[in-house]
Amino acid sequence: MRKQLVAGNWKMNKTLEEGLDLIQSVFDKLDEHPNGPVVFGTPYPFLQAAAKRIKSREGFYLAAQNCHHEDKGAYTGEVSVDMLASVGVDYVIIGHSERRQYFHETNAQLAQKVNLALAKGLLPIFCCGEPLDIREQGTHVEYVADQLKASLFHLPESDFRKIVIAYEPIWAIGTGKTASTAQAQEMHAALRNLLAGKYGQSVADDTTILYGGSCNAQNAAELFSQPDVDGGLIGGASLKADDFVAIIQAMG
Ligand code: PGA
Fold first, then answer.
1. Which end of the chain is more exposed for a tag (fewer CB within 10 A), N or C?
2. What is the mean pLDDT of residues 38-60?
3. Which domain holds residue 85?
4. What are the pocket residues of ligand 1 if the criterion is a CB atom closer than 6 Å to any ligand atom?
């Protein structure tokens, strides 16, 4: 059985104090144990302090929003997977569309990041998704399939089983324009089918595929009720404790 999961991606928001307050508020407002892992994707400078808070609470995990694709060396300002592991990070978001778009990260670099993360025991949350023009041309499934093939399909099955996929249509990120449940389900089912072809049905059935892109407290339950949608990667709505808690509770 695959797991459901909700991950917040704070992006470049909040100060340390605000971030720790947010984590505490989420803990305070959740009286029931979440139905799946809940992940806080905080900025780098907060990771160590956030790890201390999060480790005390069962079911909660910490993610970095990125990592460098090289192991170590003269890369001023960059952060390695080893550094993340050394401060208690569990997951790492890899290939977010903002990284691909603004920092020109390539499929090949993303494959290197995935390899390093797995080698150091971090679990990748691998993002994929199409821009609006590709959606309008109707080639979105092929486009996203190519992203997975290019950065993940070199992995042996045992490694692939550690990957969480996040489908995030770029036209839905931060725009308030959510994919319809039918659009999300269509893509998630197509990706699962792709995984079945490559790794077999059992791997496909066990892979957690998240939806991201203007997922919020109002639409999360309907999105998560789709048979192939296993939770969400949440940007804006993860910055407010009430909204994030409602989304966590939408995991059925
Ligand atoms: P959003 O962002 O929820 O603000 O649309 C999602 C994401 O970029 O992960």
1. N
2. 96
3. 5-249
4. 9, 168, 173-174, 212-215, 233-237
Active site annotation includes 98: no
3-state secondary structure the chain: CCCCEEEEECCCCCCHHHHHHHHHHHHHHCCCCCCCCEEEECCHHHHHHHHHHHHCCCCEEEEECCCCCCCCCCCCCCCCHHHHHHCCCCEEEECCHHHHHHCCCCHHHHHHHHHHHHHCCCEEEEEECCCHHHHHHCCHHHHHHHHHHHHHCCCCHHHHCCCEEEECCHHHCCCCCCCCHHHHHHHHHHHHHHHHHHHCHHHHHHCCEEEECCCCCCCHHHHHCCCCCCEEEECHHHHCHHHHHHHHHCCC
Q: What total of structural domains would you count in the chain?
A: 1
The percent of residues above 90 in pLDDT, for the chain, comes to: 94
Q: What is the pLDDT of residues 66-120, one digit of tens each?
A: 999 999 999 999 999 999 999 999 999 999 999 999 999 999 999 999 999 999 9
* CATH code for the domain in which residue 188 is found: 3.20.20.70
Q: Is 168 a catalytic residue?
A: yes
